[in-house]
Amino acid sequence: MNPTIELLKSHRSIRKFTDRKIPHELLVELIRAGQAAATSSHVQAYTVIHVKNPANRERIAELAGGQSYVATASDFLVFCADMKRPTEASERTGANVVRGMTEQLLVASVDTALMAQNVAIAAESEGLGICYIGGIRNNPQAISDLLHLPEHVYPVFGMCLGYPAADPDVKPRLPVEAILKEDYYTDDSELVAAFDDAMQHYYSERRGGTKDSNWSRNLTPLFDSKLRAHMREFLTQRGFEMK
Amino acid sequence: MNPTIELLKSHRSIRKFTDRKIPHELLVELIRAGQAAATSSHVQAYTVIHVKNPANRERIAELAGGQSYVATASDFLVFCADMKRPTEASERTGANVVRGMTEQLLVASVDTALMAQNVAIAAESEGLGICYIGGIRNNPQAISDLLHLPEHVYPVFGMCLGYPAADPDVKPRLPVEAILKEDYYTDDSELVAAFDDAMQHYYSERRGGTKDSNWSRNLTPLFDSKLRAHMREFLTQRGFEMK
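The joint structure predicted for all components is written out below.
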């Protein structure tokens, strides 16, 4: 296992940070590393907002569901899917531009995720810890207002970055035999059952852990109510109409 | 710049491969590195189909728009967003499961992209070359049939992997000043204009290059017709209803 693969496999979310600040030049370098990720047809359909204003950091911490580390991490970035820049650029060449296609939402969201994951890895390679903040989709319109996001730009997720003040365990993953399938999709419910047992054990044994749960039971909040049921209307209003 | 950041910044798509085969153990190791990426609420909403059947490789190469390297690369993977596994696991615990929310499509697509980007980086760290194949969304239903994908699973993109038989240039990216913004979204059309000049120069000067174009003009096919206009109906039929 080479050191890069070792780094990838050692990822865990960091939510406690020291007071040490990330030098601005390093932050810029991380974004450049992000931009080097593959991008669909070279479209680079993303913009990153570096939230420095402390009041906005506090507000986003609240809007994301009371995640205080959004305010306390050295830096906080909001990764936005951006179809405004490329559609307007194309329009300036005289091209006839169609907006709001489902495909464009996918392209922009995937582009943004690929670039963010490069930023995460670059950060971790420099000894930083990171935590993705999907919770900004709890209140995407309020976040968009705070950051002055125009139409055809939407906040996909945030990311806290800083020097780690904690060393949490690496969380187990589903067996690779469930994820990687040969030629055809096959049922993997037995592997899921085995993973549930492993997670039950992990939750009871980990440092300070007394949680009685497993993977399947932990998923309940994701599916048992209409999680972030506003997303369709929000995206439609922002110009991502999913046509 | 540390070696990992250097690796990230040296990415370019590889479309020509030697005959050397990737050892199976290495491929599995790449997937494990992929699984270590952050995942929303631990949901791990992805499945990777390793397409080994040569006839299916040929067929996918065609369906993806005549991309022969899909058939000729050492290995070809189809990264699928998978909401079947977690929703069924949740259901088995007795939870009341809601499907088809727009948020769930985003979660699964982003989860898949984060894990794929880790696979890409792990592969490149081992000297392999990769190329994402968004073209599988040209004919997503035919691909889904070929791979026996069930409902609540959709193919997001493919990836060719192999030992590089070419050494193409690293393609320039938009100025970091356009991508990284402080506190608020701001206009960057002047930076785009400068980038258009840089790309025009790049296309005329690169090895074997005589192409007269720039970034903005290259975007035309993405927006001037209804690119992959079938995606909405396809996703709806697969159970991703974007409610």
